[in-house]
Structure formats: structure tokens, C-alpha cells
Design brief:
By secondary structure, the chain is mainly beta. The chain has helices spanning 104-110, 113-119; strands at residues 13-23, 27-37, 139-143, 149-152, 156-157, 165-166, 174-179, 187-192, 198-203, 213-216, 221-225. Helix content is 6%, strand content 27%. It comes from Nicotiana tabacum (Common tobacco).
Length: 226
Amino acid sequence: MGLRSRGTSPPQMLEIASIFLFKNQFSYLFMASRTIPCPLSSAVNFSSKSHITSKPLSCVTFGALNKSRPRISVSIRAMGSSASSPKPDSLSGASKVDYSSVSDEEWRKQLTKEQFNITRQKGTERAFTGEYWNTKTPGTYHCICCDTPLFESSTKFDSGTGWPSYYQPVGNNVKSKMDLSIIFMPRQEVLCAACDAHLGHVFDDGPPPTGKRYCINSAALKLKPK
């Protein structure tokens, strides 16, 4: 909580909440607050980038909203990305169907209970239980929902995590967006760019040449052997 100044005509105060999100192999969120003098008629707007690590993740906006009790509006997004990555103009080998109109009931009829829970409700299968976590069969891994090719077996590697892991997707067929479902651990969620199926998450601890680790649920995939 902020402290107000004393005196016969105290200046109006605006409490500023500074939020920094930064991510390494593990991620944390820190919050601190302070109070500064601020005229009621003005609004404070600025962007704050964390330089604690080499990966700044936050953009924070503040504003005084009314005269009786200044309020703060805060918006947070990953630097360099929107709330959801834009859908690419061209997807490799993807169907031309518009999946945005497919209802949950239709997906339920097409998928198993586990597949629906993971791809449409953002669930996660237990480590070392998925069909493909240790598979070495050459081929292409497709989206279980719309059959879009997502990963080639040549990019699959043993991450030791118990989930299928890849260092690179097929073309623009996989997109990502910020996942703040665990408040103290911001992550990048990955989805099928054609039908928005939840696939898993991507991390920056993968092998060359990309340095990425796409940690994917087996239930979101369908392997088509070569």
C-alpha cells in the first residue's frame, strides 16, 4: 500500500503498481508498489521493460481514471507478441476448412474423451504415459483434430521430460501465445494454427539449431509413418 503525504493541501497521489515478468528456465512474477504525487487531471502512461534477464516479457500501462479515487488499469502482454499469434496466410498441407465454426459438441463426437480434454480444454497428459513420448518411427506428426502436419520425426529428440519433444514445427503450422494460467510461471502455449487445438508449450532450452523445445501432448498428435 502507498503512503499519503501530510500537510494542509496534500497533493493528489497515484499508486503505481510495477509489474515485471521475466522468464528463464523457471519463471517468476514479482510485484511491488509505490506512491507518487500526480495531478488528478493527468494520466500516466508508460511501458516498463524488465532488464533483469535478457528476455523482457512485460508491458504495463497505468492511468488515473477519475477525480474521486484514482484507479489503475493494467494490461500485460509478451513483448513482441500479441494475445494470440496471428493466423498465417499459408499453412503447409492444411485443410481449407474454417474450424472456428466447429462447436464443442462436434469436436466431442470426433475425439476421444482424453483428446477432447487436451486439445479443446487445454488439458495435459501425465508424463511418460503418452503414445509417442518414446516413439522413434520415421514420419510426420499431424494434428489429431484437423490433420494438419505439425512436426517431422527428424526434429524429434529425447528431452527426458516424458512428453514428445521437437525443436521445430512444420512451416507456420504451429502458433503460440502467452499462457498465464499459472500466475507465477508465465509460459508460451502452442496451438495448431489451423484449428486452434492446444498442443502443449514451447521452451527455450532445446537443442540446436533452434534452441526451442516444443513439449507436446501425444493425445494431440497422430503419427503418419513414412
